[in-house]
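In the current project phase, the collection of sequences with tokenised folds has grown. One resulting record follows, to show the layout:
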Amino acid sequence: MKEILEVGVLLSSERDLNRLLEQILVCVMKLARCDAGTLYLLDGDALRFKIMRNDTLKTYSGGDGRDPELPPVPLSRENVCALALLENRTVCIEDVRNCEEFDFSGPIRYDAMTGYHTKSMLVVPMHNRSGEEIGVLQLINALDEEGGICAFAKDMTLVLESVASQAAITIQNVRYMEEIKGLFHSFVKVMSSAVDERTPYNGSHTRHMAAYGSRFVDYLNHLAEQEGRGRLFSPSHKEEFLMSVWLHDIGKLVTPLEVMNKVSRLLPGQQETLLHRMEVIRLRTEIACLKGQITNEEKERRIQKTYEATELIEQVNGAGFVTDEKLRELESLRKEAYIGEKGELCPWLLPEEFDLLSIRKGTLSKEERKIMEEHVSVTDMLLSKIRFSAELSHVREWAASHHELLDGSGYPAGRKAETIPQEVRMLTILDIFDALVADDRPYKPGMPVEKALAILKTMAEKEGKLDTKLTALFVESRCWEEAKGQTKDGRKQAEKAEKN
């Protein structure tokens, strides 16, 4: 009775399906005092091996999540396991070699290969509370007090049927939980993909970060285990961290596309208006010359200057960075003026156009950058609507803080080092790295990996914005590369890993 109660406690506390199946078989074998056993689960029209244990041969397989490499058992009544499940009855056999009712050629072949001797067998079907077929427990070679093989005790049948019934219900519940979790994870990835797919300039960002992040966590765990410290990230902790990666940009669902997709400093309409103005200036210059208001030399000088202005505008508009020299040329250009239709003096370059073209780095104005930065606040707001489980309770905080920096210069809250968790620090490194090497951003070409790493080191060691130790470990991990065939092109490696 004590062992039965212990089985109940174990079954009710385990939530990992593979470990649960192994626990079920171990407990049932202990109750039945037998030497070997197999747990099958129904899969379509066959029973598949999930867990196998044989104490005499010291062979144990299936507990690590990989199914034993044995062919499935067809749902045919000639097979004792299939019959037990189909007829929902326990089958007890004293000696398989003297039983003509069932086909035991498989166990006999196994004995011939391994030197084992299968004799007594007890097969217990597992059905849930609705009567649905779940699987089968097959126990082999009951042992007497002296350790000799004997028949399974008849009074053990009811005990094992009770445990099998409880096990079936627990398996079903764990499966339901896994299905719900799988559904949630799928929903998260769909939402994340929706963000990336809104714009061609962000199409793989989150997927790449998740791939890097998973390998980075594995690397940190490997180092910790080597040093005898145990894993830093349990499976549930890793899942929570990666969930925050998948959801970190969810707020971009409401970011205006004209901001997200801004390829140049001037919007297409603004650039077209400005270039058209240069053409108008040239025509007015021609007219002024025809009217004798200016000399031919003055006309040629002005027209040439409009072409130089057009070239400057096009260069600056799409540049990754505006140099001091180009800024001086823009300053000179905005001092130029022409006579309008009503005789008024009009600037060649409007104040708004000058401000946009003078953006040093990137394509966004201060107002546009503020709109872009609001995505983290929106992320926090959206995630506040989700009732995360206890195992995912930090996802909202981590995801909404990925632009915070250790020196307090980040956003939205300007948090400082002592208030920023390790997971956020890691997420920030991943986000910055992928943004640097990305070749699909509207405002810049992709940066070589080694240059991006140098920038990360500078931000950590000289500027104090990133965690120095984690940055060094990230660089050391090469987590953007595959274990084999490493290249410097982190993006291609991530894409290949994602496909695999």
User: Anything to note?
Assistant: The first helix runs from residue 2 to 13.
